[in-house]
């Protein structure tokens, strides 16, 4: 039977752009260009490598995001994924990690899966917790932060590198894994891949299709709330110490005044 892999990919605001909060203190996503979270490219790459090793596999890329999030799906499809699912709904505005994980879990169940692959963290929220919450919601094992991953005989295996030790981990499928930026360079889409991606199916889903009520997501369903936000102050010129014999003393005084020494 075909190995069904679902890769969760997030469309994130370009970190090199000028990002702002909207009036309701959510990220103003209309104000800045977005792209496929770089860390999720590693997840797509690992899915492609697992599929290449398997006799028969199908890769679905899944995103919860606004209209423009299709760009992230197209990029993953042009890398080689087979099909895509896009959950988009006006009621998702303001959804936090609890709501996002609920929507992803329902969409994954609807799609059907043996293995879910996530990135280690998104490059905007950077919580790194979504894969664990997702596994809990799906009631399957989680093997997170892998720098090496493979699938053999219905088992997913991998290596997690810590500061002092490397662990070999495994779990029976179905399971959720997340992979790190050490798992292997993500491939660039080829011209053929980019052309092929235009014809690959992208299924559009709304909350109704997933039996999710509007009050379970959005700002209303969020477990977290941003009370206030302030712009980071502009950079100042800093203090320049000119050494005219007293430089060392002045430097020490400055460091002491800042409580560095
Ligand atoms: C339109 C929109 C509005 C939002 N508004 C808010 C808001 O106002 N406040 C708020 O707290 N959160 C909001 N979110 C949710 C937030 O952006 C995150 O998706 C969520 O909180 C997960 O946190 P994280 O990105 O830090 O995930 P992490 O735990 O860092 O992500 C780990 C991995 O989970 C997967 N993943 C994460 N998010 C998605 C996704 N959306 N689709 C597919 N895969 C994903 C990726 O594989 C990623 O590498 C919004 C999301 C969307 C799409």
Automatic annotation (TrEMBL):
InterPro entries: ETF_a/b_N, ETF_b, ETF_beta_N, Rossmann-like_a/b/a_fold. The keyword Transmembrane does not apply. This is Electron transfer flavoprotein subunit beta. Residues 24-214 form the Electron transfer flavoprotein alpha/beta-subunit N-terminal domain. Belongs to the ETF beta-subunit/FixA family. Keywords: Electron transport, Transport. Its cofactor is FAD.
């Amino acid at each position: 039977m075909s190995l069904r892999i679902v890769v969760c990919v997030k469309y994130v605001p370009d970190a090199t752009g000028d990002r702002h909060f909207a009036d309701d203190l959510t990220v103003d996503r209309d104000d800045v260009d977005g792209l496929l979270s770089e860390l999720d490219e590693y997840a797509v790459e690992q899915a492609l490598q697992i599929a290449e090793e398997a006799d028969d596999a199908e890769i679905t890329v899944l995103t919860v995001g606004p209209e423009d999030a299709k760009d992230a799906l197209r990029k993953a499809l042009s890398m080689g994924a087979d099909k895509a699912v896009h959950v988009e709904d006006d009621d998702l505005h303001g959804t936090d990690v609890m709501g996002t994980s609920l929507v992803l879990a329902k969409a994954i169940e609807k799609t059907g899966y043996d293995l879910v692959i996530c990135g280690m963290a998104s490059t905007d929220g950077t919580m790194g917790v979504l894969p664990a919450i997702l596994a809990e919601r799906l009631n399957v094992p989680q093997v997170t932060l892998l720098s090496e991953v493979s699938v053999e005989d219905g088992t997913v295996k991998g290596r997690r590198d810590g500061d002092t030790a490397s662990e070999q981990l495994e779990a029976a499928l179905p399971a959720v894994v997340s992979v790190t930026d050490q798992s292997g360079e993500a491939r660039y889409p080829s011209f053929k891949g980019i052309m092929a991606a235009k014809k690959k199916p992208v299924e559009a889903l709304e909350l109704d299709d997933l039996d999710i009520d509007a009050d379970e997501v959005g700002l209303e369903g969020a477990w977290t709330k941003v009370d206030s936000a302030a712009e980071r102050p502009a950079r100042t010129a800093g203090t320049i110490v000119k050494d005219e014999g007293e430089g060392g003393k002045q430097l020490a005084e400055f460091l002491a005044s800042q409580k560095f020494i």
